[in-house]
Each structure stands twice: as C-alpha cells, then as structure tokens.
C-alpha cells in the first residue's frame, strides 16, 4: 500500500471541533445569594413558560409562598377551575341545535303521543296534504284499561281527559254518595286511571 497515493490526498476528514468551554450555571436570583441557580420556579399567572432560577434552599422557600391564584377573587378562581375541566376550550350545552330542542321527551315517545313530522308522507303514508289513514295511539294494556275506566276512547285529548276526570270525581266522591262503598271503589279506580294517564303524558 502506497502512502503517497493520489487517493489519500482526496480523502477529507472532519476537523475535530474545539470543545466549547462549558458555561457556568447562572447564579441564584434570590436577592443576596451567590449559589448556583439550577432549580426552576414558575414566574406566575400570565407568564407561563417563564421561570426564576434559584438554589435548592431558595426554591423551597419560594414554593412555600407561591400562589398561582393570588390577586383573583373567589368567583374568578371558581370560573378558572370550571374552565380547566375542558382545558379552557369553549363548550356548548347539549341540545342547543334546533332538532334537539324540538325532539320529543322520552315519556312522550314511550306513550305513543309523539308523532314524527313527515311533510312528504314517507312514514305515515301521506302526501303532505293530510293523513291517508287516521292516526291512532298505540296503547299499552294499563293505558287502555285507564281509558276504559274513564269511559274515553284512545283519541281523547288532554282537555277531554281532564274534564272527564273532574266529572267522575264529583259523581263518585264518597261525600256525594253518602259513604257508599261501591262508589268509593269506583272513585279510587278513577283517580288511579287519571294518575297513570298523567304520568304517561296523555294529559
């Protein structure tokens, strides 16, 4: 192997970098302290990402008295804590859109009193000018029994149910019938039927 070859002249090597002199750590920022400031302590609210540099003893002292919320009222602190739950991002309450506001209650859907708005007649077999077939409520057995007790059919409106209830209560009240037991049983049955219809959203 020839050391005076032209190929050796073309080989380039990196020069060794001169090691930069290590900077001495800054001194403690506590007044009158000359120790090394190697421990970070937050500056405070509205100065996120900024830190003081203290020695070990003074960072402990600083942290004992540090209060992120100093200068804020109780209401502002409560608001900050509430907003911190969502990471201080804006939020909206559930159901602020129009369709959610106008959506039926669960009790209405369960009782069958709610009807889907169907302007094109896809669901109910209509063509937008009115129902092709009269709509009827789908009643559960207890609801059907309650309507039967009140002497009403399933298509009765809320006002009809209320007026019928008042009429039956007056008619079968024990005071109006001289304490008749048969009338008292009927009176209880009417009250129970009305309460069931009311709970299920019929009136």
UniProtKB/TrEMBL annotation:
Give me the stretches of Basic and acidic residues compositional bias. Answer: 1-11
Residues folding into a coiled coil are none
Q: Where is this region: Disordered?
A: 1-29
Q: Which Gene3D superfamilies match?
A: DnaJ domain
Pfam name, any one: DnaJ
Q: Which UniProt keywords apply?
A: Stress response
Q: Where is the J domain?
A: 145-202
Q: What is this protein called?
A: Heat shock protein DnaJ domain-containing protein
Origin organism is Rhizobium grahamii CCGE 502
Q: Lineage of the native species? A: Bacteria, Pseudomonadati, Pseudomonadota, Alphaproteobacteria, Hyphomicrobiales
